[in-house]
Amino acid sequence: MNIPSRLAIISALLLAVLLAVLLPAPSCSRTGDIPWAAPRGAAEAGIEEELTRLLDAYGSALVGKDRDAFLATIDPAAADFQAAQARFFDRVQQVPFADYRLRLDSVSDSGGQTVAKVSVSYTLENSFSTYTEPERAAFYVARTGDGLRLAGDATEAALGRQRNVHLEDFGRINFLEGGHSLVFFLDGDDAVARTARDRVDQAWPQLTAVLPGVELPKVPVWIYHDQQQIDAVYPGEWQDWVGGASRSYGGASGGEIILDAGTFTEIAAYDPDYNRKMIVHELTHVALFGVSSARAPPFLEEGLADYVAGFEVSPRLANIIAGGGDPVPSLRDLSRPGGFEVLLDDESAWLAYEVADTAVAYLEEKYGNEQVMALLREFRQRELDQLDQDQLVEEVFQSVLGIGWQEFEDGWRRYVLESR
Question: Which of 102, 239, 281, 395 could form a disulfide with 309 if both were Cys (CB 3.0 to 4.6 A apart)?
Answer without folding.
Answer: 281
